[in-house]
Each structure stands twice: as structure tokens, then as C-alpha cells.
From TrEMBL:
Residues 4-202 form the Tetrapyrrole methylase domain. It comes from the Bacteria. One of its GO terms (cellular component) is cytoplasm. It is an enzyme of class 2 (transferase). Catalyzes the 2'-O-methylation of the ribose of cytidine 1402 (C1402) in 16S rRNA. Its EC number is 2.1.1.198. One of its GO terms (molecular function) is rRNA (cytosine-2'-O-)-methyltransferase activity. CDD domains: RsmI (cd11648). The lineage of its organism: Bacteria, Pseudomonadati, Pseudomonadota, Alphaproteobacteria, Sphingomonadales. It is found in: Cytoplasm. Belongs to the methyltransferase superfamily. RsmI family. It catalyses: cytidine(1402) in 16S rRNA + S-adenosyl-L-methionine = 2'-O-methylcytidine(1402) in 16S rRNA + S-adenosyl-L-homocysteine + H(+). This is Ribosomal RNA small subunit methyltransferase I.
Length: 244
């Protein structure tokens, strides 16, 4: 069926490619990619030879329109270098244009570092705010953290090894000692989750810069600890008892 298919690819372990994703890429007439070398390797691994077209959100309107026009009559796949397209990756403008043009847009879901990290880090997952990468500059970083500090939810950031210690220090300074988790190299050989307070982990990573890919997760402010619904029920019953 023709349309634009947004296809998730693995975030490290190639075996995480879903059967649907493989089938779709096989059926695709055009694969819109962030970097043809990266996706070329994946296609090669899958034994597929495909017409790739470089696409990102800085691509011109003409390029976008041409992909949307193609998706009217053919299967067009959008992939990024790793994980789910549009999640700190290109694709937003393309999806928006396709929808506006009435071209069907389908999802082939799969890995994303945000959900992979949240699912194993042990911090509350009932409410979370994904904020992508923090700004590089110290002042902008503190401004962003201050704004996000108001939110009563777990915060999720993408990070890079060389910046991790500085980000953790800024978090400790702005929020005090919230519980944080550093999820590294998910689905790969050296997958690891390290938890502690922001200042503990700032010291740890200042002493040794971490290697590989990183998701940084910050627990919610203290007054928003997720309650066990059992506790809430018990407290309610007790309150009702004292009222009667
Ligand atoms: N679209 C991707 C997704 O759905 O996860 C994210 C793309 S973003 C440009 C790349 C960042 O995601 C990395 O810098 C890192 O912060 C995070 N990331 C990607 N793969 C990861 C992995 N295997 N382990 C930990 N973090 C990862």
C-alpha cells in the first residue's frame, strides 16, 4: 500500500529490527535516510539493495514535496541513523507535509532510546517529559533546566559523554539532589544503568568520562513521588474512618 512509512531501526543491536520493518524496507521504492553510509550498512546487513535519498529537516521544500509526491503512488520509507525517526531526529516536517497533502502516513514502530532507558532505569515512568539534548552553553543549559524544574515528572535527556559531568553538575545545582540514572550503550555489549544523586554521578563522570551513547534520566521533584495506589486507598479509608 502506498504512503509514507516511518520505520524504526535498532539503537545498537541489529536483531532488534522488527520483521515488519524488514518487510517494509524490502517493499519500499524509496528509502529516505539521514546518512546513506549508516543506513547503507543496515540495508547491506539485511541483504537489501535500495534507492536511498538523503533527507533531513533542513532539506528544501522541493525535496520534501518530491518525497510526498512519490509517497502518493509508492511505498516511501523514512528511517534515521538509529531508533525512531523524529525523536531527536529528522522527519517532523516531512510527516507534517505528507499529512497536509492527504498522503497516508504509517508507523512501523520499534526501538527508541527514550523508552528503552525509562523501562529499565527504576525511576517513575507514570509521567515523563522527554527534552532531547540540553543546550551546549552553560547559561542556556541552566535556563532550560530551570524551566523544566517546574514540571512534576521524570525528565529524560539525550547526552554525550564529554558533556555528561557538566550536565549532572548543572542538574545538582539547579534541582538539589534529585535521583538520576545514566543509561549507557543500551542493547549493546556494554549496556549499563548507573543510579545515584546528581552530585554523586557528576563526581563519578568528572573523574572518568563515559564512553558510548547515553540517556540521562532525572527523577521528579520530591513532592511528586509516585504513590502506590494501595497506599492511597489505605489513607482514604483511614480518613473516612476518622470522619464518621
Ligand atoms: N531517534 C533516536 C531514538 O529513537 O532513540 C535518537 C537519535 S539521537 C540523534 C541520538 C542519541 O540517542 C544519542 O546521542 C544518545 O543520547 C541516544 N541513544 C541512541 N542510541 C542509544 C543507546 N543504544 N544507548 C543509549 N543512548 C542512546
Amino acid at each position: 500500500e502506498s504512503g509514507l512509512y516511518v520505520v524504526a531501526t535498532p539503537i545498537g543491536n541489529l536483531a532488534d529490527m522488527s520483521q515488519r520493518a524488514i518487510d517494509l524496507l524490502e517493499a519500499a521504492e524509496i528509502v529516505a535516510v539521514e546518512d546513506s553510509r549508516v543506513t547503507g550498512k543496515l540495508l547491506h546487513h539485511l541483504g537489501l539493495k535500495k534507492k536511498m535519498r538523503r533527507y533531513n529537516d533542513h532539506s528544501g521544500e522541493a525535496e520534501r514535496e518530491s518525497l510526498v509526491a512519490a509517497a502518493r503512488g509508492a511505498v516511501v520509507a523514512l528511517v534515521s541513523d538509529a531508533g525512531t525517526p523524529l525523536i531527536s531526529d529528522p522527519g517532523y516536517k516531512l510527516v507534517r507535509s505528507a499529512r497536509a497533502a492527504g498522503v497516508p502516513v504509517y508507523t512501523i514502530p520499534g526501538a527508541s532510546a527514550v523508552t528503552a532507558a525509562l523501562s529499565i532505569c527504576g525511576l517513575p515512568t507514570d509521567r515523563f517529559l522527554f527534552a532531547g539534548f540540553l543546550p551546549n552553553k552553560a547559561k542556556a543549559r541552566v535556563e532550560t533546566l530551570t524551566e523544566l524544574g517546574q514540571v512534576k515528572a521524570t525528565l529524560v535527556f539525550y547526552e554525550a559523554g564529554p558533556r555528561l559531568a557538566a550536565s549532572l553538575s548543572a542538574i545538582a545545582e539547579t534541582y538539589g539532589d534529585r535521583e538520576v540514572a545514566v543509561a549507557r550503550e543500551l542493547t549493546k555489549k556494554f549496556e549499563e544503568v548507573v543510579t545515584g544523586t546528581a552530585s554523586e554521578l557528576a563526581a563519578r563522570y568528572a573523574a572518568q568520562e563515559p564512553k558510548g551513547e547515553i540517556v540521562l534520566i532525572v527523577g521528579p521533584p520530591a513532592d511528586d513521588v509516585a504513590y502506590d495506589t494501595g497506599d492511597v486507598d489505605a489513607a482514604l479509608r483511614e480518613a473516612l474512618d476518622t470522619m464518621s
